[in-house]
Design a protein that fits this description.
Elements: H1 3-16, H2 24-33, H3 40-52, H4 59-75, H5 77-88, H6 92-118, E1 133-140, E2 143-147, H7 155-166, E3 170-174, H8 180-189, E4 199-201, H9 206-212, E5 219-223, H10 226-238, E6 243-246, E7 252-255, H11 261-273, E8 285-288, H12 290-308, H13 324-333, E9 339-341, E10 345-346, E11 351-352, E12 355-357, H14 365-368, E13 375-380, H15 384-392, E14 399-403, H16 407-416, E15 421-424, E16 445-446, H17 451-457, E17 459-466, H18 471-477, H19 486-496, H20 504-533
Parallel strand pairs: 2-3, 2-5, 3-4, 5-6, 7-8, 7-14, 8-13, 12-13, 14-15
Antiparallel strand pairs: 1-17, 6-16, 9-12, 10-11
This protein binds nicotinamide-adenine-dinucleotide (NAD).
Residues 147, 149-151, 156, 176-178, 205-206, 209-210, 223-225, 228, 231, 246-248, 280, 370, 372, 398, 440, 445 line the site of nicotinamide-adenine-dinucleotide.
């Protein structure tokens, strides 16, 4: 199919989805024209110069950048929808619900809170520091590299950007080359809304990213596969650059006998099928017993028809698979002998119908790598204990889903498994719940972000202790100087001892200690006065 024909086809699909056609033309142009104007070395040097000049540090500047990003999301909504449609055949509702609005809400929250977060924090003080200033300063790291992923190319590229801007860094954004329309839109349009010295977009794939990674950054934030995560971590280690890795893996969904199956099946299938299964926290596979599987299948067919009509391949609500390579990889997972529902696909459109596989062995390819597509295998286990054993025998997942009415079953999983996050009786939405950090553990990643965690991720917490130079302070310090003695050891122990809550006895000791210091200080003062008058 020629470029013109495929554009026409996309345009007619866009009309079906009722996206804003006025902006369509600009997406096509952006895709054809944008290229990097600077080498990796120049990009990093430019960014460092801007950071060193101190421009990013003021609260006013940070807020202006955050507001600029919000304005981009609002004013370029039509362009964004079209770019996401072009890259992933993403429906307008999914663009809104899973990409732009999530970032916009994080931005609104951050704009409201950033002044509070950026203020130096005053932690609780111990007796030894009663006369001192004790602070935690939040320093921006400096030059930050954010490498985004293609599956949610707005959410996973601009989401980390919120925290990085709020923390006052100078930023280089590398969107995924596999979502080129969105990457080009960001390069062309977003740069108009943010400060050009302190924010740059660098485009490219493996080769360009590898070159970029040779440079020294002050922080690297990567979203992508565990395999590439290892490469990023090694490159970062050369410069001892702190790194957040948001990776993938196989996220299980356990279904207990106690659930309302209609609701459970709907919530699992929604989480599995949004973005055609190309979601890092999609339930990768189901664990349940044979009776539960039978009930699940009875409901699943009806739900899939309700979601996508009789022929999901014709539905404008089902996205496409990002590349031919990923499409082929997914199709190979579909062993016709295991298909309980679906199993159809269209190679030219790269669409796969929602597919459920049964009688799957843990050693089958579909169970040995992350699926990342609309295919859901079911693994039969006897009970919750066996499900926990199955989960713990594998790498720690990014998400764990527990569908159970029974609280003791919920707690059994919570207390005996480790995962990046957990949702009970739902899928995916823990990721967009305000005030919950998002991130993996073990092979599913390290570090987290969203809201305050995003700000903290991109800030170095600098410990600051302020002492004055008065005689009183100097006197309290005298116990640490040589010559050492047993009395000094006792006083130091008293001052340094970690205490729980402030008890009456402790307050009494404090008063006696303060009175002692005051007496000693007055005595010293009187002695000096008398000496000078003689
Ligand atoms: P990927 O790791 O293949 O690629 C990510 C980016 O890294 C690419 O765009 C490319 O620019 C760069 N890259 C690839 N190979 C490289 C190399 N050898 N050297 C240097 N740079 C290289 O990931 P992907 O295919 O874009 O995304 C899918 C994976 O990401 C899945 O495993 C998914 O679970 C995971 N993911 C995780 C999250 C999360 O938030 N935890 C979100 C989305 C996706």
């Amino acid at each position: 199919m020629s470029i013109m024909e495929s554009d026409k086809e996309d345009l007619s699909r866009a009309e079906v989805l009722n996206v804003n056609n006025n902006a369509w033309e600009s997406v096509i142009n952006i895709e054809e024209e944008v290229s990097n104007k600077k080498s990796p070395k120049e990009v990093v040097e430019f960014s460092r110069k801007a950071f060193t000049a101190g421009k990013t540090k003021s609260l006013k500047f940070r807020k202006a950048q955050l507001k600029g990003l919000l304005k981009f999301l609002e004013e370029c909504k039509g362009d964004i929808e079209k770019a996401l449609y072009k890259d992933l055949r993403k429906h307008k509702q999914e663009c809104h619900m899973c990409e732009t609005e999530v970032v916009a809400n994080d931005l609104r929250h951050t704009i409201m809170e950033v002044a509070k977060w950026a203020n130096p924090q005053k932690p609780q003080k111990r007796l030894v520091n009663l006369l001192d200033g004790v602070y935690r300063y939040n320093d921006p790291y400096g030059v930050v590299l954010i490498i985004g992923a293609w599956n949610y190319p707005i959410l996973l590229t601009l989401g980390p950007l919120v925290g990085a801007l709020a923390a006052g860094n100078s930023i280089i954004l590398k969107p995924s080359e596999l979502a080129p329309a969105t990457a080009n839109l960001l390069a062309k349009a977003l740069t108009k809304y943010l400060d050009k010295d302190c924010f740059q977009v660098f485009l490219g794939g493996v080769e360009e990213t590898s070159e970029l990674l040779k440079e020294k950054f002050d922080y690297i934030f990567f979203t992508g596969s565990t395999t590439v995560g290892r490469i990023i971590y090694q490159a970062a280690a050369k410069h001892l650059t702190p790194t957040t890795l948001e990776l993938g893996g196989k996220s299980p969904a356990y279904i207990d006998e106690s659930v309302d199956m209609k609701k459970a099946a709907k919530r699992i299938l929604w989480g599995k099928l949004i973005n055609s299964g190309q979601t890092c926290v999609a339930p990768d596979y189901v664990l349940c017993n044979k009776e539960v599987q039978d009930k699940f299948l009875q409901h699943a067919q009806k739900i899939i028809t309700e979601f996508y009509g009789r022929d999901p391949m014709e539905s404008p609500h089902l996205g496409k698979i990002i590349t031919e390579r990923h499409f082929k990889r997914l199709v190979e997972f579909i062993n016709p002998e295991n298909v309980a529902i679906g199993g159809k696909y269209n190679s030219s459109a790269r669409i796969i119908s929602p597919t459920i596989l049964i009688n799957v062995s843990p050693d089958d390819p579909v169970m040995t790598e992350e699926i990342f597509g609309p295919i859901l295998p079911i693994i039969i286990i006897k009970n919750a204990e066996e499900a926990i054993h199955f989960i713990n025998a594998r790498e720690k997942p990014l998400a764990l889903y527990i569908f159970a009415k029974d609280k003791s079953i919920q707690n059994l999983f919570l207390n005996n498994t480790s995962s990046g996050g957990v949702a009970i009786n739902d899928t995916v939405t823990h990721l967009i719940t305000e005030n919950l950090p998002f991130g993996g553990v073990g092979e599913s990643g390290m570090g987290s972000y969203h809201g305050k965690e995003g700000f903290e991720t991109f800030s170095h917490q600098k410990s600051v202790l302020v002492k004055d130079l008065t005689d009183l302070t100097e006197m309290t310090l005298s116990v640490r100087y040589p010559p050492y003695s047993d009395i000094k050891i006792s006083v130091l122990n008293f001052l340094l001892k970690k205490r729980g809550g402030v008890s009456f006895g402790f307050l009494k000791n404090c008063l006696i200690f303060s009175a002692g210091i005051a007496c000693a200080y007055s005595l010293q003062y009187i002695v000096k006065k008398m000496e000078s008058s003689n």
